[in-house]
Design brief:
single chain, 114 residues, alpha+beta, OB fold (Dihydrolipoamide Acetyltransferase, E2P), 1 helix, 46% strand
Length: 114
């Protein structure tokens, strides 16, 4: 019984550590905003792919096609605040406009050796 309790505690510690490290936030510049897919009867709004760099990675975050987003609120080149928790993201502009999105692509930013 004691061995089972120790194993359970170790598993819980590993899960808590893994979930704690997946949360990332910061401030950066919005690199790109592109429409994704086309609206249809099930998805009445246009989805967008918002691209930005942060924490040594490049991210692409796709908005929900079931919710509206005003593309003019997210101007490429403007400063944004991003929050990432696993594959869920949130992007907030300096004007207070925000949108929730799903991380669909992550790329390591590499340094070219010379």
């Amino acid at each position: 019984m004691r061995k089972f309790n120790i194993i359970a505690v170790l598993i819980m510690a590993a899960v808590l550590q893994a979930s704690a490290t997946s949360k990332i936030d910061g401030t950066t510049t919005l690199k790109d905003s592109q429409p994704a897919g086309t609206p249809d009867k099930d998805h009445k709004h246009q989805a967008y792919d918002l691209s930005f760099e942060g924490s040594g990675k490049a991210y692409t975050c796709r908005t929900d096609p079931k919710k509206s987003m005003n593309a003019t609120d997210f101007v490429v080149g403007n400063e944004i605040r991003y929050y990432i928790d696993g594959n869920k993201g949130k992007i907030k502009t300096s004007n207070g406009k925000q949108v929730e999105c799903k991380i669909v692509r992550v790329e390591n930013l590499s340094v070219n050796p010379r």
